[in-house]
Amino acid sequence: MLALTNLDAARMQMAVSLGFHIVFACFGIGLPVMLLYAEWRANRTGDDAWMNLARRWSKAFGILFAVGAVSGTVLSLALGLFWPGLMGRFGAVVGLPFALEAFAFFIEAIFLGIYLYGWDRLSPRAHWLSGWPIAISGAASAWFVVTANAWMQAPAGFTLGPGGRPVEVDPIAAMLNPATPVMTTHMMLAAYMATGFAVAAVYAVGALRGGNDEIHRRAIALGLAIGLVLTPVQILVGDWAARFVAERQPAKFAAMEGQWETERGAPLRIGGIPFPSEEETRYAIEIPKLLSWLGYGDTNAIVRGLKEWAPTDRPNTLLVHLSFQAMVAIGFGMLALGAWSAWSLLRRKTLPRSRWFLRAVALSGPAAFAAIEAGWIVTEVGRQPWIVQGVMRTAEAVTSRSGVVVHLTATIAVYVFLAAASSWLLLRLAARERGSAT
Amino acid sequence: MSRESLEIAVLAVLWGGLTLYVLLGGADFGGGVWDLLASGPTRERQRRLVADAIAPVWEANHVWLIFVLVGLLAAFPPVFAALGVALYVPFSLAALGVIFRGAAFAFRAHGDPGSGWQRRWTPVFGIASLVSPLVLGAAGAAIASGRIRVRGGEVQAELIGAWTGPLSIAGGLLALAMCAYLAASYLTVEAVQRGDDELEQAFRNRALVSGIIAGALAAAGLIVVRADAPTLWPGMLGRGLAFVALSAAGGLVSLAATYRRRYRLARVSAAVAVGAVLWGWGAAQWPYLIVPDVSASDAAAPASVLRLVLLGFAAGAVLLAPSLYALFRVFKTGRHPPPTS
What we know:
The structure holds 2 protein chains of 2 kinds. By secondary structure, chain A is mostly helical. Chain A is 73% helix and 7% strand. Chain A has helices at 6-45, 48-82, 84-117, 124-153, 171-175, 180-208, 214-248, 250-257, 290-296, 317-348, 355-381, 394-397, 404-437; strands spanning 159-160, 166-167, 263-264, 268-275, 280-287, 302-303, 386-388, 392-393. Chain A is globular. By secondary structure, chain B is mainly alpha-helical. Chain B has one domain (3-309): Formate dehydrogenase/DMSO reductase fold (Up-down Bundle). In chain B, strands 1-2 form a two-stranded antiparallel ribbon. In chain B, helix 1 (3-36) crosses helix 7 (166-194) and helix 6 (116-145) packs across helix 7. Chain B starts with a helix and ends in a 9-residue tail after the last helix. Chains A and B meet through helix 2, helix 3 and helix 13 of A and helix 3, helix 4, helix 5 and helix 13 of B.
C-alpha cells in the first residue's frame, strides 16, 4: 500500500469515501418514502403492524442518517483536500449545485430531527407531514450532487480561456449538462431500489429464521414492490445511459464492453475477461452485431475499440468491464426475481412462500448495493485518465501534498470500524425488535 | 449590483453561516465537552441533559459547516482550493472529529442505557467534540496569521507550522472555550425549563467559569494578534474595534446575567459576545480572505456566478427560515416535555 503514488492514493481515498457514503445516502433517499407509506397506512387504519414498522425504521433511519451525514460532511472537505486543482479552476462552474445541495441537506436534517424526536410531541398528522420534506429534499440533494458528477462526464457551461481557465461561465448550463438527465435518473432509481431490496432482505432473513409473521410479510411486500417495479424501468434507463456513454465517452464504452478493435457490427460480450497486455477480451459469450445496435441503434454501426487510444489514455479495462458486467447481471437477476414474484402473484395472488424465494430476496439487498458500487466504478474509473472528460486530467487536479496514503489508510480503518459498529447496532436493533414482537 | 458589492454580499452571507455554525454547531461541540467533563453526583443527569438538548438539532446545526465550505467553493474557488492544501492536516483532523462526534453520539443514543456499549462511546463523543473546535479554531487563525502564502497560484504553507503558530494556539483554545461557554449558557436555560435546580446550579457554575476563561482567552488573543499577526493588528484597531467592544460588552452582560440567574438574557448576550469575535476577526482581515496574499476580489468567481449564488442563497433561505423556526419551536421553547426515548 505504501508503494501507491499520491494520485492513486487520492483516487482510492475518494473511492472509499464515496463508496462508503453512498450506501448511507441511498437509505437517506429511499427510507423516508417507505416510512411515509408505513405511517400513512398506520394512521389511516390504526393498524399496529404498520405503526410498528414505521417506528422501527425510524430508529434505523436515525443511525443510518447520522453516518451518512458525517461521511457526507467529510466529502465536502475532501473536495478541497484532494482535488484542489479541480476545485480551484472549476469551482465557479460546478460549485452551484453543491451550494444548493447544502440547502436540501439542511431541510433534510431539520425535518429528520423533527421526525425522529417528534413522535410524542406532534399530532399523528403533523408528524406524518414532517416526513415529506425529508423525502423531497433527500431526492433533491441526490439530484444536485449527481449533476456535479454528470458535469465531470459531459462538461458544459464554460469555454476554455487562456491557460485552461474557464471563461463565459454559466453554472446553470453546467448543472443541466447533457449527462444530467440520464445520470440523475439512473442514480435516484437505484437509491429507491436498493432501499426497497435492502428492507425486504432484512425481513427475508428474519422470516428464514422463523419470524414469518404479518410484519415480515408486509415489509417484504413493500420493499419488493418498490424494488421490483422499478427494475424494468431501471434497465431501460441503463440502456439510455449506455447509449449516452457510447456517444460521449467512447473510450469508457469500449472498456465497459471489452472492445479492443474498432469494428463495424461489433458483438455484445457477456462475461469475459479483458487482458490489457494482450489487448483482447477472452472467454466471453459473443452475440454478433448486438453491441453496435445497443450502442448506436444500427447493427452495422462502427464501435471504436480501445486500441484507438494510447495505453496511457485508456481506463482500467479489466476493472471497468467486470464492474459493468456485474451491475448488468445483478439487474437482470432482479428482473428474474420480479418475474418469479409476478408469476406467483398472478397464479396465487400472493408472493412466493418458498424458502428459496426468501433466500433470493435476502440476497437482493446486498446485491443492489453491490450494483450501485459497481456502477460508480464504471462511471468514475471509466472516465480516467480524465477528471473532467476531455478537459482536465486527474493528475492535474490532485493535491500537491504528499502522504495522501496516510490519510487513505486512516480512512479505511475508520470506515471499516464505523461500518462494523453501525452494522452491529442495526443487527442488535433488529434482534431486539424480533424478540419483543413475538 | 456592482462586482464589489456582490462579493461583499456573498461573503456576508457566508460569514453569517459561519457565525451560525459556531453559535449552534459550536454549542453542540461544547455540549460534548461538558459530557466529557461531567462529574459529581448529578453526572449522569448532566449527560442526559446534554444528549436531550443536542439530539434533535445537531444534524441540522452542523450543515452550517457544509454550507460555508460549499459556498466558498462556489463563490471563491481559489480560496477553497488553497485552504485544502494549506490546512490539509487540521482539516483532516476536523473531518475525523466530525465523523467520530456524530457517529459516537448517534451510536450511544441507540445503545442500551447503562450498557458497556454506551460507556465506551461516551469518551469518543467527548474527545471528538473537544478536538474539532480546537483544530478548526487553529485553522481559522492560520488564515489570519499570514502563515499561508499564495504566490502566483502556488500555495506555500508548512504542513504543521502553518496552523500551530501562537495565533493558531490562541485561536484553537478560544474556539474551544467559546463552544463550552455557549453550551453551558444554553444548557442552563434547558435545566431551568426542566425544573432541575441541581443541574441549573451545575451549568450556571460551568457557564461562569468557562465564560471567564473565554473572556480571558479573547483578551489574550488580542495581545497575540499584536505580536504574531502584524498585518491583522491595524485592522483589529480599525474596522474590528467596534466588534471587539461589542464582544467585551456581550461577555460582561452575559456573566452578570448568569450570576443574577437571568439565563435567557445570558444566552443571548453570550451569543452576541461570541458572534462579535467572529465578525471582529472578519472585519480586521478584510479585504483579505487569506492574509496577506489573497483578497476577496482576487479570488471571487465571475459576477454572473456570484449573482446566481446569491439568488440560490435567497431561494434556499425562503425554505430554510421557516424550517429552522419549526425545529426550534418544537424542541427549544420549553413548551413540550423532554423526549422520553
